[in-house]
Amino acid sequence: MKVDLFDFHLPEELIAQTPLAERTSSRLMVLDKKNGEIQHSVFKDIKDHLKSGDCLVLNDTRVLPARLFGEKLGTGAKIEVLLLKQLDGDAWETLIKPAKRVKEGTEITFGNGSLTAVCTGTSEHGGRVLEFKYEGIFYEVLEQLGEMPLPPYIKEQLDDRERYQTVFARERGSAAAPTAGLHFTEELLDEIKEMGVHIAFITLHVGLGTFRPVSVEDLNEHEMHAEFYQVTEGTARLLNEVREQGGRIISVGTTSTRTLETIASAHNGRFEEASGWTDIFIYPGYEFKAIDGMITNFHLPKSTLIMLVSALAGRENVLNAYNKAVEERYRFFSFGDAMLIL
Fold this sequence. Notes:
Layout: E1 27-31, E2 38-42, E3 55-59, E4 61-63, E5 67-72, E6 78-88, E7 91-97, E8 107-110, E9 115-122, E10 128-134, H1 138-145, E11 171-174, H2 186-194, E12 198-204, E13 227-231, H3 233-244, E14 249-252, H4 254-266, E15 274-278, E16 293-297, H5 304-313, H6 315-327, E17 338-341
Parallel strand pairs: 1-17, 3-12, 3-14, 4-11, 14-16
Antiparallel strand pairs: 1-2, 5-6, 5-8, 6-7, 7-10, 8-9, 9-10, 12-13, 13-15, 16-17
Helix pairs in contact: 5-6
């Protein structure tokens, strides 16, 4: 299967640069995965498409203010660091600009020396391993010095960094937000629970590999970057009960989907308490074992995310829906509108 099969024309002005004032006021496209029929709605009315006994599965990862700006010790050269993954203790896998200036042994200082780092090695795709030194608690230092790692297609500054967090974010560790969850408010979640819909939480720390463009022509040759996930015993038990009682499992976002499918694939369609690293790559031809539906945003052409959506709803249905979204001027990507696939 070729990457070009997942291409579509996207006018640049449809890439949402800022979040809406009200999270639930985003538009919602509802796509029937069986016949491709489309309905247009608004996100706060998602309740109309849920029913008692269903279960929404939310990713409770919290985005780190993972972009740091520092100077190379000795020369004063400006260095930008993006934290990707904690390795061991205070060692982190990072992306650095300009990478050519940071070799093994290079020291970098941030915030007038309140945080320093030394390069101890390299990682795949040109990354660098940094060992950090600081006083106190690393995450508190990061909150003071770091900026939100907004995707490169967002050029505007974010006034309120909490707007790039879901209202239920609690497990620190992501390099990017699970953006399908940005549309929910606590009030909407309470209303959904009052309907008899279950709410379950999983954790998957989103890495930038999720958003990297596919650089091979043949999908069979693409390798996903591994991301850390965790599912508790309580969540696994709830999901099994929902399934046994005939309820639908609806994942919120591609990250929740990949986590649930990783676990169900390993346990013959059942859910178990588990944690580890997943590099599952879902594209058309994949047989879903965990979910019945999904809430997701509108994704980049030729990305692994539109491939996952196409696996669930059919490539032609999805491309038709995306062309309709362009025609109807939906907002795309992280701060954009949402799609419900049932």
